[in-house]
Amino acid sequence: MKIDHVGIAVESIEAALSFYKRALGLEPCHREEIAAQKVRVAFLQAGEASIELLEPIGDEGAVAKFLKTRGPGLHHVAFSAADIAGHMDRLRREGLAPLETAPRPGARGHRVCFLHPKHAAGVLIELVGG
Ligand code: CMX
Predict the structure, then answer these.
(1) Within a 10 A sphere around the Cβ of 30, how many other Cβ atoms?
(2) Cα(113) to centroid of ligand 1, in Å?
(3) For a substitution probing ligand 1, which of 54, 76, 128 has the most ligand atoms within 8 Å of its CB?
(4) How confident is the model over 43-64, as pLDDT tens digits?
(5) Nearest CA residue ID for atom 8, ligand 1
């Protein structure tokens, strides 16, 4: 599998974008609000993969909770998975059940699912389908 993106939880997308521009010359290529996940996101392309900056909308939701308990930093690593439903079935058979029972809508029109960090050395894993 290829890495699709690396998700980084931030307090402020604008402040983080300023760092990525000044330090690495990276510009945002896509912005979106994912209301169901209570986040706004910005993607920065870095070669074949991208960085996803995640800023919480409000005080609830997974990213707001993450920032409150752990502070800004690596939130998840996402891998491309064309047949996402097939991968979810395979993972269930392996005893590594995804957090969702079925793929759900994610950023950029993709279908996604997540694997709990307890399965992956403390890193939340996302699978990104077509
Ligand atoms: N990476 C690593 N560890 C994490 C984590 C993360 N992103 N989020 C939580 N944890 C850890 C906590 O530190 C805690 O560890 P300890 O038990 O050692 O203290 C443990 O997991 C439980 O933490 P929690 O705060 O009680 O969190 P919840 O169990 O309520 O939720 C999770 C954790 C992963 C199940 C939840 O965040 C989730 O369902 N995530 C998937 C959805 C998501 O993250 N959406 C935002 C991204 C949207 C997008 O990109 O589309």
Answers:
(1) 13
(2) 13
(3) 76
(4) 999 999 999 999 999 999 999 9
(5) 66
Closest atom of ligand 1 to CA, residue 76: 7
What is the chain's pLDDT, residue by residue, as a tens digit (130 residues)? 899 999 999 999 999 999 999 999 999 999 999 999 999 999 999 999 999 999 999 999 999 999 999 999 999 999 999 899 999 999 999 999 999 999 999 999 999 999 999 999 999 999 999 7
Dihedral, CA atoms, 64, 70, 72, 76, nearest 10 degrees?
Answer: -80
d(CA 102, CA 64): 24
| Ligand 1 close to Cβ of residue 28 (< 6 A) | no
- 66 vs 59: CA distance, rounded Å: 11
Tell me the two tokens of residue 101. Answer: 């029972």
Report whether residue 66 contacts ligand 1, using a CB cutoff of 6 Å.
yes
